[in-house]
Amino acid sequence: MIDETTYAELREIAARYPQARSGLLPMLHLVQSAEGRVTPEGIQACAEVLGLTEAEVSGVATFYTMYKRRPVGDYLVGVCTNTLCAVMGGDAIFERLKDHLEVGNDETTADGRITLEHIECNAACDYAPVMMINWEFVDNQTPQSAVELVDDLRSGVERHSTRGPRLCTWRQAERVLAGFNDGLADEGPSAGAASLAGLSIAQENDWRAPSAGRGASAGERIETEEGQ
Amino acid sequence: MTVVSTSSTNEGPLTPVLTANWADDRSWTLASYAAQGGYQALDKALGMSPDEVITAVKDSGLRGRGGAGFPTGMKWSFIPQDNPNPKYLVVNADESEPGTCKDIPLMMASPHTLVEGVIISSYAIRANRAFIYVRGEVLHVIRRLQAAVAEAYAAGHLGTNIHGSGYDLDLVVHAGAGAYICGEETALLDSLEGRRGQPRLRPPFPAVAGLYASPTVINNAESIASVPSIIENGADWFAGMGTEKSNGFGIFSLSGHVTRPGQYEAPLGITLRQLLDLAGGVREGHELKFWTPGGSSTPLFTAEHLDVPLDFESVGAAGSMLGTRALQIFDETVCVVRAVLRWTEFYKHESCGKCTPCREGTWWLVQVLGRLEKGQGSAEDLDLLLDQCDNILGRAFCALGDGATSPITSSIKYFRDEYLAHLEQGGCPFDPAKSSLFEEVLA
After folding, report:
1. DSSP string, B315-326
2. Whether A47 contacts chain B with CB within 8 A
């Protein structure tokens, strides 16, 4: 059930935009945070706040893969099985986790802790094979490290993203996606090692972009090319 | 020909600009960004007229970093300033093209670079509202963007009367909800309006009727993040890097079977051979088999393309597209049919369903490819695949359908025998365990 606080927050999201309907995607994220999935009550609340029909809201909610119509566990574990992660080991990781957790794709463990799914490319290919836990990066995985991670999460052991904070629950994460900051932005590093690969080499060799104010450089270059 | 540097020192093959501060302590904070000169470009821009800012970006030769390569300054100049509706800037940070992983680390490490770029760009096109549409599946990146925007408001870089200039701008960080198609600019606009993310018919183009049917500029995150450096250092500085028609620098993302995968910022026109030298080469004991120059929607290249300059013109002339400079490296252990089938399953999953060639065509492609991968079907199926691709390419509503055909047609062009080997052997001749990074037999 959608309480008054959530209704007020739904209105607050809609008010961020010149046209209220633009708030629908973050509003549905908030519904997931409050309800654990997109519920009929959540759809009704969004429709009411935006002056839409429930069918119009449902039409949007069913288009996007992040919106779930069945209850999601505390930890949504996504294994990238798009081509690059798959060949680097993502397929093997996903198979191992299905066996270990005794669930199929898009299914939740009986204790309600873990929902497993395979995901598409999540823009971390230089850290392949990649997993996402509640949309936090877990880089450079193996079947063994993946099993240890989900076991820890199931038994309540604190674990961190490889490039971010301690892993929160899926419902907490959905609240951030709705635009309500949880104050954790300052946790974790600036970047992982792969993100810094080129910069590190440039720094070792003292390579830099040309300095500013060298207006003649373009002309010099053209002259050189013409001379070849 | 790439840049011939005439400078005496320090100009190597890599030119960190956007990535330069990524290793700084707490690089994502305003304090860190300001300490290395952040928001000085904004002051400089606010001292210029909006048209002067547009001219500077035009003169720099900056072209869209999201794949299409359209000149950024020209796009800005298409905004009809006599249109009475509000103008909008929308940043496309929906980075989802398989292999593409440059905008996400940029926004994680230095969100203020993007925020400063948004403010300068919005000022240029005379927008008072801007949006960063970031894919929803990157929680920590969204936190960092939200925090950066809050810091920018508190410091007076956003809000009313920015730096005493009289210019006002509000910026909203908007999280998507999982849909590759929303990287297509008109689908993104529908999504940002709270609808299903399906592409719109063009014309009218977004510059005339975009968000809320008002004049709208949509640019990729890396394009907008490049703007502060252009304003700070000058259009000539930017144009002095890169090739004649592909100016400036870009982030090249190496992934897959390479010794040191990661982000390498270099002038456009660098080659994969040069990048692989820097990255320690293909993983030890193996050799390059095929690669994508700009994501899975760009036709595959092979070892014969190692010396193609990675600029818009040269990659196009060699039969592919520069795309997003997402260099996915696959060695000889990888079955090209398996790789292409998986990408095709992706396109099928992500097809928005609006147009028939893409919606039905991608399903057909998966059926025929899946059969071939299992060693079933016949050699005629390769012709059937090419015929299906011919019925999608150029006939789909947007570029998703076109992109879906790229890996198929290019892989048949370079690896027809490997497809046939599946038929001859009644299955895949490769052991998938050999291409993974660890010793593990598939369950």
Report:
1. HHHTTS--TT-E
2. no
SS3 at position B174: strand
Structure tokens at A158: 């604190």
| Whole-structure pTM value | 0.95
CB contact under 8 A, A60 and B194: yes
- pLDDT tens per residue, range A146-184: 999 999 999 999 999 999 999 999 999 999 999 999 999
| Residue B440: predicted pLDDT | 54
The rounded distance, in Å, linking the Cα atoms of B413 and A23 is: 46
Evaluated on CA atoms B271, B277, B282, B283, the torsion sign reads negative
Count chain A–chain B contacts defined by CB atoms under 8 A.
339
| Cross-chain Cβ contact B99/A125 below 8 Å | yes
Q: Which residue, among B85, B436, B439, B441, would best test binding to A if mutated, counting the most A CBs under 10 Å from its CB? A: B436
Token pair listed for A119: 């995901």
- Examine the pLDDT at B110 and tell me if it is beyond 90: yes
Distance CA B3, CA A200 (A): 22
- Residue B186 sits at the chain A interface (C-beta within 8 Å): no
Which of B:362-421 have CB within 8 Å of A?
none
pLDDT, mean over chain B: 96
**What's residue A212's pLDDT?**
72
Q: Is the pLDDT of residue B3 over 70?
A: no
The predicted model gives B165-175 an average pLDDT of: 98
Tell which CATH architecture fits domain A4-61.
Orthogonal Bundle (1.10)
A121 contacts chain B (CB < 8 A): yes
Pairing between strand B262-267 and A107-108? unpaired
Tokens of B391: 């019925």
Contact A23 B256 (CB under 8 A): no
- Helix (H) or strand (E) holding B375, with range, is none
Q: Which of B385, B347, B351, B346 is nearest to B365 (CA)?
A: B385
Q: Which CATH architecture has domain A75-168?
A: 3-Layer(aba) Sandwich (3.40)
Q: Which of B373, B115, B136, B397 is nearest to A135 (CA)?
A: B136
CB A138 within 8 A of CB A128: no
Element (H, E) at B439: none
What are the residue ranges spanned by the domains of chain A?
4-61, 75-168
What does the alpha-carbon distance between residue A73 and residue A218 come to, in Å, rounded to a whole number? 57
In chain A (228 residues long), the average pLDDT of successive 10-residue segments reads 96 98 98 98 98 98 98 98 98 98 98 98 98 98 98 97 97 98 97 98 96 46 35
Q: Any CB–CB contact under 8 A between B339 and chain A? A: yes
State which H helix or E strand residue B92 sits in.
Answer: strand B88-93
What is the amino acid identity at position A192?
G
3-state secondary structure (DSSP) of residue B248: coil
